[in-house]
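Worked problem 6 (solution included).
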Amino acid sequence: MNFSLLALFFSAESLFIIQKWEPLYHLLNISCLLLFFIAKSYMSTSSSPVFLVDFSCLKPPNFCRVPLSTYIEHAKMLDFLDSESVDFIAKILTHSGLGEQTYFPPALHYIPPKSGHQEAIQEVHMVLFPVLENLLNKTRISPSEIDILIVNCSGFCPAPSLSSIIVNKFCMREDIKSYNISGMGCSASVLVIDMAKNILKTQKNSNAVILSTEILSTGWYPGKERPKMVLNCMFRTGAAAILVTNKKEAKRTAKYQLLWSLRTLRAFDDKAYYSAFREEDSNGLTGVTLRRELLQVAGETLRSNISILGLKVLPFTEIIWYVVSIIKKKFMNKSTEIYVPNFKSVIQHFCLPSSGKPVIREIGKGLKLAERDMEPALMTLHRFGNQSSSSVWYELAYMEAKERVKKGDGVWQLGMGTGTKCNSLWSLVEVVKITGSLTQMYGTKNDRKIFLTDSKKTNFDDFVGHSTL
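Solution. The predicted structure is:
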């Protein structure tokens, strides 16, 4: 917009000079330009900035650990799985990128796994209560100071709602604005941050807490249709709590300032809509089917998202090169590759969807990211598995623990979910605070070796502390 306006201004000035018009026209032209920039500056400063004060990630208890060999051994004991199904599970786990210290809720350690309502409620208590308590301790706020509460969980929607369970447990205020978000898949955490930011625009001087998790006890698929068995292998326990505020005094202590958010959805396309779909199998058992075109659909959704994000955050020169490459490919040489903008010129840290190693690799390849840029997603997948929407916060915790996040850096958190939908969150680092819980989970740069992706010699203990929360 700025470039277009400046081009229009100089074009008008050139016309006035050539036509030798009166100086009054020059004055009017300059006045319009100044009024535009003054109005734009006023609009940008009139709305309060939104800060991400701090966040907390759950480290499940050690008794919930599920080594890959244990998973396969338990699968062999399930009556409904034949040897071919067990071999399929073993193949998925071998190529998944998961390590030996991921976690399952207690209900799924039974043989056969339990997936009742009571087990799911117990899992809610186990994952959400500790992570919120930790956030309150870190930020030194009381439950009564929380004005907005948003809880997201895709597959479990009890009555009373998850947000009501939290309000009841922590005795929050009666006028708190509480929301419960479901069905949004792995993109939900970024989505609810955008939601909180929009709510804060209408509610000044307020604190918003976001709780992000996925309850696995009710999501277990007890059948043997292979497209539905993949999520059983990949999903693991995790949760994150985030404090967002528009209070001006938070600028001194907040870790990040939220600059921009973007949501794109391709549910209008049947291929995208059915690429990951919750449905019953031939025996009436419910599970999520992952179809072959999922990766292709995810790529199309991501391209539509980053094309809009790029126009907002990229330098003008990168946009020009991108447009020129498209024109050249369309009208001059069809074999010409379209230029991939360099997002690293404005964004230093990337939190990618940890849906699986192929997805991470494909996104990294499309954005021309280096191994170091994909490392947080790969390491989070290795250490904690696919934790659905909360994974992006574990990746940010990893980068903080490695002391890579510096003041002024740009952070891009990318969430992709069923539908399909793609949500982006762009933040600016304000203050960096490395907490004890992060070093317990990942270790620090000074006392741990540098992670080498895909290295067979990588020792997991080089990256993760042994203390438990």
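Discussion: Residues 299 and 352 are 13 Å apart (CA to CA).
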